[in-house]
Known about the structure:
Number of domains of chain B: 2
Helix content of chain A: 25-40%
Order of helices and strands of chain B: HHHHHHHEEHHEHHEHEHEEEHEHHEHEH
Oligomer: heterodimer
Number of strands of chain B: 11
CATH topology of the largest domain in chain A: Vanillyl-alcohol Oxidase, Chain A, domain 3
CATH architecture of the largest domain in chain A: 3-Layer(aba) Sandwich
Radius of gyration of chain A: 23 Å
Largest interface: A-B, 67 and 61 residues
Amino acid sequence: xxxxxxxxxxxxxxxxxxxxxxxxxxxxxxxxxxxxxxxxxxxxxxxxxxxxxxxxxxxxxxxxxxxxxxxxxxxxxxxxxxxxxxxxxxxxxxxxxxxxxxxxxxxxxxxxxxxxxxxxxxxxxxxxxxxxxxxxxxxxxxxxxxxxxxxxxxxxxxxxxxxxxxxxxxxxxxxxxxxxxxxxxxxxxxxxxxxxxxxxxxxxxxxxxxxxxxxxxxxxxxxxxxxxxxxxxxxxxxxxxxxxxxxxxxxxxxxxxxxxxxxxxxxxxxxxxxxxxxxxxxxxxxxxxxxxxxxxxxxxxxxxxxxxxxxxxxxxxxxxxxxxxxxxxxxxxxxxxxxxxxxxxxxxxxxxxxxxxxxxxxxxxxxxxxxxxxxxxxxxxxxxxxxxxxxxxxxxxxxxxxxxxxxxxxxxxxxxxxxxxxxxxxxxxxxxxxxxxxxxxxxxxxxxxxxxxxxxxxxxxxxxxxxxxxxxxxxxxxxxxxxxxxxxxxxxxxxxxxxxxxxxxxxxxxxxxxxxxxxxxxxxxxxxxxxxxxxxxxxxxxxxxxxxxxxx
Amino acid sequence: xxxxxxxxxxxxxxxxxxxxxxxxxxxxxxxxxxxxxxxxxxxxxxxxxxxxxxxxxxxxxxxxxxxxxxxxxxxxxxxxxxxxxxxxxxxxxxxxxxxxxxxxxxxxxxxxxxxxxxxxxxxxxxxxxxxxxxxxxxxxxxxxxxxxxxxxxxxxxxxxxxxxxxxxxxxxxxxxxxxxxxxxxxxxxxxxxxxxxxxxxxxxxxxxxxxxxxxxxxxxxxxxxxxxxxxxxxxxxxxxxxxxxxxxxxxxxxxxxxxxxxxxxxxxxxxxxxxxxxxxxxxxxxxxxxxxxxxxxxxxxxxxxxxxxxxxxxxxxxxxxxxxxxxxxxxxxxxxxxxxxxxxxxxxxxxxxxxxxxxxxxxxxxxxxxxxxxxxxxxxxxxxxxxxxxxxxxxxxxxxxxxxxxxxxxxxxxxxxxxxxxxxxxxxxxxx
Lengths: 552, 432
């Protein structure tokens, strides 16, 4: 769809000729999406043009406001993006303008004393962390990968390698500046008081962080564009420059001082997969105990597929490790860091050992292949980035099928229920996913307790090849796993592959989708900010869901 | 069609942006966190490897075409130094042949008759006419060697253990002749039996391959391979990383062989001199009190790995049959130049933030300086700023192209830094 010449000229007047383009080749580079199998995107499924009509590069909040006002004047849809990693950055309608924030890449403030940073949309986690480490601070380490936009990740509730300590994005978002779809500016948290600064996420009035939960309105883009955030920083007792050894794929980060950081892998004496439930329950028990003791900076249960993919140096290496059963089951991974002193680290280690013994766990020893492969290669990555991109290594394609939030106990229940459905489909008469290789198919098993186990996150992941048949089967399996979770009424959120699921699941949560739609209508009367859905909405239809949930 | 062979690689890009940033563990500041000169300068995603994957896929699917978008396609494809920072970083995550995609786009441009660019054609035509890229007469090629008493192996009856291949730029560029002269004196000092090809030395042809003109490249490669065979070259030493990589990787690919199976062994002069130092054949005596930083030439460092030939297909899960060993930047020539600098008394080597396999390119590679001088200059100035941040007074390198472009960057930015070739330092340190 051609972009309005008058609108284009208006954008050029504001941004300058170099910073807006309708060139089809440039726009082509914004036309694809990752982390989704082919045929999932609504527009792709309908055979529609996937390319945005225009790309604009603002350099300031004022320029973003101007873009949004031009969009309202000429009635074209727009979608902002961060680094462009997830489908939330993907245009859903013909004639869409993509707002690429690469020129808004400034760290505006890094407050060492109050431990926060104020940043623009194209500041990456790794860049911010590098600056923070110089003053003894760090960031939550993004599982999406350290290259992603901090702002987009915080705004979209990113999960972190050290979530055990830090919680997810929302917990670390101290404030934001949002250009509404009308072009007006909203500031949240303490910044809502003029001149107060971004130090506190609870300013006067209602908590506006909910505005950023774009899944309610469209496919997760939110209302308008966030142009600035303040994010919480955490203490960093480690070196100001990351220690490394070796080159490229064989590089390791094993030079961390052991008086500041220590890693542990913990296993339980159960057989996989027959006794997986017991293993997961014991892991949960350990997390609860650790939470009570308030120890550790990293605590998570990693499923086999995570362990294999994260630690792989090459695709062949991954499949070789699987063949050699390097990770015979999932493991609990715990990281301790001496935030205050060596004494603290030694205290935490002592407590951890007591708790592991109490719940019947065993520490994986240094000479075991699992230890060498995980701790030897990549454990430290969890203090810098989660490297979820590497999850694409097995099939050169990856997607989080669904993502659930609940208590640790309920997450274990969800995993087991989901895995039962998945195994029935993989092994049953329908032979769905017959060409999948376990554990690299649809699988749950990641337990990510947050904030000392106060709540918990998990995902069911799917590794289809780009073969349409396999992608279709993967979607079908994820759909059925999700249905099961909905039937159990066990999860507080089911997102991602089922992009518009907030609308579907709204009835489960006090019809929250209705009030959110009212906000949307009020602030975006022409429905220009991320309209439509990127992902097919028919995996679980609203009618089906109503029936399953009994209208609640 | 050139693009068909990289369809899988281009279409499986996950858009994770790893190609745009430096190695995550090695990022030491927000300021110097980027690794791709092309998108750093061009800003839009189209200039990153991610965007080029999308463009290659779009061309294959007919979503964009050469007829309507030729100029923009050429600009995006060629305003890139093929430094492979994107490729090496991507391979930490995925098993995709990103440099293969960038090469294929250039080959496609040439197949369609739109590439290479006029500035590149000048180089190639010059090679065809004069055997060098600088439109200089063949007779002047070995002028640098006058008074040095170096064997000319192209003359009947002359034999030597080592063929010293000089390359067009060191041979012809005014002011750069000190490097081959110094190299010759160093090899003599070490007692090496070596010779050159004199006026019969022919350009390696790397530029033709870099810009996608495979036909011209193969013609030039044939000439050189024949010459190497005629003079019985078993060990080739060269100062130019471009020539080094061409002989090591490009000729191997052309011959469908592994580098190790080529009829000769090619070594960059820094690798060779490091070996001579280890063997005790060279000892530094003179103290050179100088704080320097070292710039890794892409073709010597991350692109300097031995080539492993592969022909096969992708099978389930994107595995390859037979298994393919990709170059991942693990075994580039990173340490040898540093070993040399560390061995020189008085030299204090201080590293820049982006080095080795995650080094920032100088900006001049693969025809980008000739076609896009503003781009090359901007990339060079960025490197100079990074070098200045180390407090070094000189930036040392081992590549004529890097040195020329870095010098331009210094001139344009008003920096007081000096650019030194490592050979000049080695020769000074051997004196006395």
